[in-house]
Amino acid sequence: MTEGYIQKEHGARVKRFCQIMELKDDAELIRRYCQAHDEEHFRPEILAGMREVGILEMEVYILGNKIVMIVDAPEDFSWDEAMARLATLPGQQDWEEYVAQFQNCDANATSDEKWKMMSRIFHIYDK
């Protein structure tokens, strides 16, 4: 983990969004949530939907029962418009219902209600 993660080059300016959520504090549920996101189990229609709405890159990190999602998107990307559209795409509602069992949120909450947008308080500025 201390070696870092190579980032994809997109050839254009991108903007980044960071969100946080808590999972239920249950080791087996956390294991199953992580499994649902591994390459073998992640649903291809969910990835296709993310690409369709313009998401370039998405990463999810975990520490205990807290997860952080980092999303890179084109500079002209509108988060609210993209999430509203994503919610209507094939498989998305079923996915939200499935992962709700792991999340420490209201099971009927939308993805936007579950994930809390984080504010950046520091970055290394170009001078």
Structural overview:
By secondary structure, the protein is α+β, with helices and mostly antiparallel strands. The protein is built from five helices and four strands. It has a four-stranded antiparallel sheet with strand order 2-3-1-4. The chain is globular and about 45 Å long. The relative contact order is 0.23. The model has no long low-confidence stretch (mean pLDDT 93).
What is the number of strand segments? 4
User: What sort of overall outline do the alpha carbons produce when their principal axes are compared?
Assistant: globular
Mean pLDDT: 93
Arrangement of strands in the largest sheet: 2-3-1-4
Gist of the model:
This protein has 127 residues and is α+β, with helices and mostly antiparallel strands.
Provide tags for this entry:
4-stranded antiparallel sheet, 5 helices, 127 residues, alpha+beta, single chain
What is the secondary structure topology, with strand pairs?
Layout: E1 14-22, H1 27-36, H2 44-52, E2 57-63, E3 66-74, H3 79-86, H4 92-100, H5 111-114, E4 116-117
Antiparallel strand pairs: 1-3, 1-4, 2-3
